[in-house]
């Protein structure tokens, strides 16, 4: 496991070769005729992107034969043989942590680069906001996520709100308590006597909705304060700082039998209220599926993964391999308006597969966003892919 991970972190092909002597090109792992290859090398010409909620897991329980399906993408020795990643709009914890959790639940080795969450594209905004005060909103560890990406001055909404007395007039009626975090490295700890940033003087330069907000009322109130005032709650109106959402899912399938309101629902609530109380309409950017950017990014990650895993034993054309395209990338999802719409919009080489284990339960294909294939479970989807790619 450690060696596998070190390969994915290796900065050069040579380093990668040293790190993983066990890893062999796929052609050596499978009989030649069983696998479709492209013209330039010995690697599978396809990759797979799995949605998580409603496809792989419901809550924390594996569904649809997902552990078996994933195991078939590894050799008997547990070496990855098909490049795949998880492409989820969810999040709230750093990718490394999510990878460990998925490895445990699904009983296969999953590395951090194989986990692309809704907020993963936020790291691309690092050069803009690296040393600026930013606020991170949502369940889990939103500030820790942003700190891991390299942002230096990040406060969670819990911590930020705690600097302003009476900013939430309803807080006295809330019986829950903000989790006390003793870890000194965490940015989510409540107010300390010597605040790291002077929230009363430093303007918030951007707000990031990292994961589903927990306290909608407080968060909408404080975000309206930040956004209307130009970054200083309680002050005169100013220019709206940039606002970023990790995704825009209206609903998603969790443990409860019917769908739950997602980040898109929170966005609508915030936007509706903000536009009623502010002269200029809310400006924002949403990432996550079905944004085609997310699919292009996933393709780049899969290429990198493939060259890390399969390139190290090939002494030539490593660069060429990194750049060469996949013939097919399969998107396996449960939500037609997110997973299937996104894969369709991304176009070639994406091929969409819709499962019936989550949001979609229809007998036939979805009418508005029909998938290239509809199956009952993720296990059926992977069986289909491996059969199709071996002919
Ligand atoms: Mg889903």
Describe the fold and architecture:
Helix 1 runs antiparallel to helix 2 and helix 9 (216-229) packs across helix 10 (263-277). The chain has helices spanning 2-9, 13-19, 26-29, 66-71, 95-106, 126-129, 142-149, 157-162, 216-229, 263-277, 292-310, 318-323, 336-346, 378-389, and strands spanning 46-50, 57-58, 61-62, 84-87, 115-116, 133-137, 153-156, 206-209, 243-245, 251-252, 260-261, 285-286, 328-333, 350-355, 373-375. With 391 residues, it is of the alpha/beta class. It binds magnesium ion. Magnesium ion is lined by residues 51, 53-55, 252-253, 333-335, 358.
Summary keywords:
Rossmann fold, six-stranded parallel beta sheet, 13% strand, binds magnesium ion, disordered N terminus, 2 domains, 391 residues, 34% helix, five-stranded parallel beta sheet, alpha/beta, elongated
